[in-house]
Batch of 2 targets.
Target 1
Amino acid sequence: MPSKTQANFRWRYQPNNELDKALLKYIKQHPALSVTEVMLTALRSFWLPMAIAHSPNHEEADKQRIAQGCVDALLRQADNLCVAVGLELPPRAYHCSSSLALLKQPTPLKEIQSSVPITASQLSAAAGDGDFDDSGLAGW
């Protein structure tokens, strides 16, 4: 049985502009998630489907499932952003998949308070419920 190797990833960034400073402050002070969880949720949702799209190491059904979960998470985040800043929710021809527990019976967006962030369990479900090994980031 081949052993799995872990890759270390370190990233250091010292923001020069006020928007990036506000972003990093928000990430560091997130009320429900660690810095690693916030960063990986965003990275996975945005980039993971592209990273595995042409990989021979993943079955097509898995690629589709992962991509669907990421699209669902991104659409949910877009809705949360609209609610948080008071924008009108965009009409959608696309409806989120019901394959994620988070989206089987979603809370109507009108009931979400803009001061209440999405919960850790909702983010986890939207990002694939821990289907990804991030133990290599433990010392980050």
Note: Residues 98-116, 132-140 have pLDDT under 50 and may be disordered.
Target 2
Amino acid sequence: MDNVVTEDEAVLLKTAEEQLVGFEELLDDVYLDNVVDFEEFLRLRRARKEILEYTLHKALADGLITHDERQLLIRIIELLPLVR
């Protein structure tokens, strides 16, 4: 990453931020009782998948994923808890 945020990267970051708000709300529900019930598990898994798909869709909007956008996508994947 070159420490310069292009317009495409800014859109990608904004998209990820908007999507992560809902994910954090789901995590708050889990942390209330420190138990992940099956419904919470399904919601977390669905939310993670939607975040990744939506963010990737935004990155592909111009038909090209730059190296820096790719690095941002990798960071987003790394930050989201793995929910299988």
Note: The CA atoms of residues 48 and 80 lie 7 Å apart.
